């Protein structure tokens, strides 16, 4: 834990021994377009480590600084202060020639795929190897299994215009893997895809991460993407890391306002509108308390709601609920209402303390 500028205690990731990427006190200022003077800090004293072999998400709203962070990793930008270290090499200190070889060890996929329309699937994937001067035979030997891996063996002679968005991104992934990178950067790679295609591409990224042991750093503004595929996450806000840690921990107990409001957009992340409109913040005589119960870990598979009902001896009204999976772990949310009578509330509190059930009063309904 550490203090941020506003004095709030924020969560920080600590399990990052021998990271693949380290940002050490990185600040990136841009010149003001009006005055030409350094005015705007797109990144403000960012320290963060991307663990080796995992899929890590960087999430934040538009303008939070995500793309700037990624551009520092492959040396497209240099920090104004601080260091960026990739697999032990300080990329922020390298000249253009040295950077070229580092970039070969970093694959990248993009929102708009960046394929060459005049080249076939095969030729797009082969391109990084052609540029590196690899012979035709060797290229074929390396490319064919990759095209197979991304499920496009039937389409090697097709042009990008003949492919769907998901297929184009598969080409982008195969091309990124052609030079056998140790790190894959994904910049909003699923943002232009429909939800079903997004899931398929995310599954492919998981397979690649697992089977090739490739470290993936994925930047996105979509919580759904982070939830589905990452094991670690850093939430960015105004050029700073607002909080970071295991995705499951950050999603189930968010500490920063930005994380909370981004999570509210997920299905089940906020109250249904019809009840939300009736919620009052202070109890009135005879009203019900509205609670959010969260089930995970040991509380995920126990019949705690029926036990709660028996314990209170007063009706428990189930308002809404979802059962979901975060980073592969089950997670449920249930909104319930019961009498806000102090005696009932006290019994409920004892029940939560005894069982470890995570419960939070979100308001009252008359
Ligand atoms: N070359 C530049 N010159 C001036 N300002 C820049 C430059 N590049 C980025 N910025 C500013 O830095 C801030 C962070 O931009 P960045 O693209 O990193 O954010 P982001 O989180 O990736 O947003 P988005 O999701 O919209 O791409 C923005 O306010 C942006 O306008």
Overview of the structural elements:
This protein is an alpha/beta fold and 366 residues long. It has two domains: 2-105 and 181-263, Rossmann fold; 273-365, Alpha-Beta Plaits. Helices cover 33% and strands 30% of the residues. It has twelve helices and 16 strands. The chain has helices at residues 66-73, 96-104, 121-131, 136-149, 165-178, 195-212, 223-229, 247-252, 257-263, 273-276, 304-312, 342-355; strands at 2-3, 9-10, 21-31, 38-50, 55-60, 81-86, 89-90, 106-110, 183-187, 215-220, 232-237, 240-246, 288-295, 317-326, 329-339, 358-365. Residues 1-9 have low confidence and may be disordered. The structure holds adenosine-5'-triphosphate. Adenosine-5'-triphosphate binds at residues 30, 40, 42, 60, 62-68, 221.
CATH homolog superfamily of the largest domain: P-loop containing nucleotide triphosphate hydrolases
CATH architecture of the largest domain: 3-Layer(aba) Sandwich
The CATH class of the largest domain, by name, is Alpha Beta
Helix content: 25-40%
Strand residues, percent? 25-35%
Q: Overall pLDDT, averaged?
A: 90
Element-level helix/strand string:
EEEEEHEEHEHHHEHEHEEHHHEHEEHE
Structural class: alpha/beta
**Straight-line N-to-C gap:** 39 Å
């Amino acid at each position: 834990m550490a203090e941020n500028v506003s004095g709030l205690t924020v969560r920080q990731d600590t399990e990052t021994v021998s990271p693949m990427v380290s940002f050490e006190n990185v600040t990136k200022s841009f010149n003001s377009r009006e005055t030409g003077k350094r005015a705007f800090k797109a990144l403000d004293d960012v320290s963060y480590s991307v663990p080796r072999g995992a899929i890590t998400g960087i999430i934040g709203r538009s303008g939070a600084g995500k793309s700037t962070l990624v551009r520092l990793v492959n040396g497209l930008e240099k920090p104004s202060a601080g260091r960026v270290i990739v697999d032990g090499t300080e990329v922020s200190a390298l000249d253009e020639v040295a950077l070229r070889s580092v970039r070969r060890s970093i694959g990248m996929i993009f929102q708009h795929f960046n394929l060459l329309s005049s080249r076939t699937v095969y030729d797009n994937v082969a391109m990084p190897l052609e540029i590196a001067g690899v012979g035709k035979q060797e290229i074929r030997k390396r490319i064919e299994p990759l095209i197979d891996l991304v499920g496009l063996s039937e389409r090697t002679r097709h042009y990008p215009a003949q492919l769907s968005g998901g297929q184009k991104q598969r080409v982008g992934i195969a091309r990124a893997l052609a030079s056998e990178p140790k790190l894959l950067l994904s910049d909003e790679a699923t943002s232009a895809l429909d939800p079903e295609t997004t899931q398929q591409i995310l599954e492919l990224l998981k397979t690649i991460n697992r089977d090739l042991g490739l470290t993936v750093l994925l930047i996105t503004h979509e919580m759904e993407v982070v939830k589905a595929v990452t094991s670690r996450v850093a939430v960015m806000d105004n050029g700073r890391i607002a909080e970071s840690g295991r995705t499951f921990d950050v999603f189930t107990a968010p500490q920063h306002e930005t994380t909370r409001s981004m999570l509210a957009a997920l299905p089940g992340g906020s109250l249904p509108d019809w009840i939300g409109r009736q919620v009052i913040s202070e109890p009135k005589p005879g009203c019900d308390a509205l609670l959010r119960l969260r089930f995970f870990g040991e509380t995920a598979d126990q019949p705690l709601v029926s036990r709660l009902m028996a314990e209170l001896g007063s009706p428990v009204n189930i308002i809404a609920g979802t059962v979901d999976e975060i980073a592969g772990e089950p997670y449920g949310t249930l909104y319930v209402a019961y009498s806000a009578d102090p005696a009932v509330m006290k019994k409920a509190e004892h029940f939560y303390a005894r069982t470890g059930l995570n419960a939070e009063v979100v308001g009252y309904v008359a």
